[in-house]
Specification:
By secondary structure, this protein is α+β, with helices and mostly antiparallel strands. 42% of the residues lie in helices and 24% in strands.
Length: 165
């Protein structure tokens, strides 16, 4: 009798382990389905690119932000009205390397930039209640673009600003 109990228990354990075993074919089917979906998306994207003619680049921006684009160089420029808090004064185009809600933080970055040889200034945007740290300011857009490109090696988020005055 004891032999039968041990044999039946062994049989139940063997069935339990084999019943939980997942089949490779189920995994293979799921993999093939995912691969097919990925290929369909890639072909849809390629077809979509061929059919649509892009007229202008799409730039996501907040609703309160205005962008001025000069067709010659296609570099976006934010347009804001600023008042100088600490510095000599802003020209038409400026390169902004930092924006802060606390004036002390903006002045800290300004002193860092001055120690690096830049004529940095702090300007305040009352509409956004933000202090902008301007590394350099220019009369022409091409000069500002060149300066921004140079500054991006150290400040990757540097951007151009047109002061509405």
């Amino acid at each position: 009798m004891r032999k039968y109990v041990v044999a039946v228990a062994g049989l139940c354990i063997a069935l339990a382990f084999t019943g939980c075993k997942s089949s490779e074919s189920a995994y293979k089917k799921a993999y093939e389905k995912a691969k097919a979906q990925e290929e369909n998306r890639a072909t849809d994207q390629n077809q979509g690119n061929e059919e649509i003619a892009v007229v202008a680049p799409v730039v996501e921006k907040p609703a309160t932000e205005t962008v001025v684009v000069d067709n010659a160089d296609n570099v976006p420029v934010r347009q804001e009205t600023l008042s100088v808090v600490n510095g000599a004064g802003l020209k038409s185009f400026s390169v902004v390397v930092g924006s802060f809600s606390v004036q002390a933080n903006a002045e800290g970055l300004q002193s860092t930039l001055k120690s690096q040889g830049y004529d940095a200034q702090v300007a305040y945007n009352s509409a956004n209640q933000m202090y902008r740290v301007v590394a350099a300011t220019f009369d022409s857009k091409p000069e500002a673009v060149s300066s921004r490109n140079d500054l991006r090696s150290q400040y990757p988020d540097a951007w151009l600003l047109y002061n509405q005055r």
